[in-house]
Amino acid sequence: MRKSRAELADPKPADSGEAASGLDRQADGVPLYQRVRELLRKDLARGVWKPGNMLPTELELSERFGVSPGTIKLAIMELVREGLINRRPGKGTFVTRIDTPRGFARFFGFETPGGAVLNPSVKVVELEITTEAPAAAKKALGLGARGKVLFVRRLLSHDGTPVCIYDSYLPYKLMAGLENEKLDVDRIYYAIEKKFDIHVVAVEEMLKASLVGGKEAKLLGVQAGSPVIHIERVAFSHNNTVVEWRETIGRSDQFIYKLRSH
């Protein structure tokens, strides 16, 4: 099963002329605000506005796209609901940062069966610079046999109960020095953003069911051979640059994984 991600377009920002000309009001019967939403989403993916940046006002955007402020407001509210941006009363509309609960929730799908949102604690249990990585990781990161990765294994827990194991493989040529950061304090995407100004803007995930091995079973507090949720993730920065390949092993007896498709 694949989790959809925002389309990452050509890095050249669309100017107001391009945006306006792309809005055929009769195209495919798609509401105008949805087409504006897609153009804004592409601008976010290109890095026209980075996490923490304030967007132009609704009036400025309406002039840019050649539509009414009401249409812009509908498009903005869609992106707010998706967690891509957030509104601050009296201040403006801002691109969501990964270090906020709303930003973290964009890329974390585990919940209780009742739908309760989790805010897990993080513990780094392994960390090393290595040339060893799964073939899928090397391929996704575009690394050769001797390409270095930073491997980080983290255990996420909720109220003392293990939720999942994150095994992250990051291209060391882009992340040199990340091993010195406190990755059990900062979320890893926030640490990458803070140290390298690299922003994770989209992910793709492949899910399957599997059985857990002995070492991972001990970390999760389950018996070896128990069924688990197995997820492979590729994380993208601006311009479709792959910045992480991740393998997640999650408990399926007390938690569920919800896919969010934007």
TrEMBL record:
Occurrences of domain HTH gntR-type (ranges): 30-98
Short name of any one Pfam family annotated for the protein: GntR
Biased segments, Basic and acidic residues type: 1-15
GO terms under biological process: negative regulation of DNA-templated transcription
InterPro entries given in the database record: Bact_HTH_transcr_reg (IPR050679), Chorismate_lyase_/UTRA_dom_sf (IPR028978), Tscrpt_reg_HTH_GntR (IPR000524), UTRA (IPR011663), WH-like_DNA-bd_sf (IPR036388), WH_DNA-bd_sf (IPR036390)
Gene3D superfamilies assigned: Chorismate lyase-like (3.40.1410.10), Winged helix-like DNA-binding domain superfamily/Winged helix DNA-binding domain (1.10.10.10)
GO MF annotations in UniProt: DNA binding; DNA-binding transcription factor activity
Domain of life: Bacteria
This protein's name: GntR family transcriptional regulator
Start and end residues of each stretch annotated as Disordered: 1-23
Keyword terms, alphabetized: DNA-binding, Transcription, Transcription regulation
Phylogenetic placement of the source organism: Bacteria, Pseudomonadati, Pseudomonadota, Alphaproteobacteria, Hyphomicrobiales
